[in-house]
Amino acid sequence: MKKINLLYLAVIPLCYVLIQMNTKLRIASAFFYGFAENKETELSHDHPVLIHKILVTPGQAVEKGQLLMEVKQSSFDLKITSASHDLEQIEVIAQQQKQSLRDRIAQLKARRLTKVNELQAEIDHLEATINYNQGLLKDLKSIDDKNINKENTPNKLKLAALKEQLRLAVETIDIEIEQLEKELAVITAPSKVQQEKLKSEIDFYKKEQQKLAIYAPSDGIIGNILCKEGENISAFSTLINFYEPNPTFVKGFVHESLILHVKVGDSLKVSSSLQPEHNVEGVVIGLGSRIVEIPERLRKIPDVKTYGREVLIRIPTENPFLQKEKVMLNSLEEESSSSMAFMFYLFQNKHK
To answer: Which ranges of the chain would DSSP assign to H, the alpha helix?
Structure first.
């Protein structure tokens, strides 16, 4: 009984040592490296545009919704120019027509005043003559008073004719002035309607032009600016490379001997190669379709060419990594399951 207990006591430390060795070997073999990458967005337009103004510089940090670039589209410029020209023409023509009518009205009023002054002067002169003659006749006792105040005397008939002439002249001119004033009102109303319509069109095209402006889709950093002010850019051409502020995925390369150990959906521990305590959990979201040469910086022995499969890992937005920082990748689930399986195997053999 004591021998068995001593054997158990000897086997248990041995199992522990073997488990630790297996775990270390497993961890060493499961490790592979990658680069922390920021999500890149290529900002472009689906129509040809003219670069009007660039408001940012490469490397500049920007906030979501910030205006990055003002661009224009030639079709909108042509429509705005055409509508503006039509608006100016309507305003000029309307002003000319209104001024012409005002001039005619002013001329008629001046003619009316002249006519009134002329006829009124004759009327005043004739009335003065009649009054003077009547005064003389009153002084003559041989003249009957009834004959003095007769309405059908030549001067009085002439006076009545002049007053009628004045009334007709004033009435005719006033009718013509009234017609011209009505025409002036009719010309003003349609021109205002046309002007308002054209102004609305211009405002609409300007708003559509403003919608073409490039805004930051989220908080981030400006990458390359692939255009310059005054340049015409064809449809779907990249204008700005835009990066999110923190890396959102890791591109790694697993050695070809370990490609079966990594699958889509696996959880990986992502650690900084310089500060291993800085780590997050990532998820494999993509695997390369072919074996490629592993970049020199990601090889375990840089001078020895090695080959493997590209792996894409998504990581949380809040992470401590820098863009292009070298990171270590390892599957914690595989480590745990391997260690547990090896321990169970030794435990079974021990009881046998």
So the answer is: 2-30, 74-139, 145-148, 154-211, 332-351
pLDDT higher than threshold 70 for residue 344: no
Residues 6+ apart with CB under 8 A from 337: none
Rounded to two decimals, the pTM is 0.48
Residue 91 token pair: 């305003």
Give the separation between CA 324 and CA 298, rounded to whole angstroms.
12
- What is d(CA 145, CA 109) in angstroms, rounded to the nearest whole number? 44
Q: pLDDT tens digits for 278-302?
A: 999 999 999 999 999 999 999 888 8
Write the pLDDT tens digit of every residue in 181-210.
Answer: 888 877 766 667 777 888 888 888 777 777
Phi, psi (rounded to 5 degrees) for 84 = -65, -40
* Whether 225 contacts 55, CB under 8 Å: no
Cα-trace Rg, the chain: 51
Per-residue CA distances from 311 to 89, 253, 256, 264 (Å):
66, 6, 12, 9
Q: Which residues pair with 330 in a beta bridge?
A: 269
* Domains assigned to the chain: 29-39+246-351 (2.40.30.170), 43-73+213-242 (2.40.50.100), 75-211 (1.10.287)
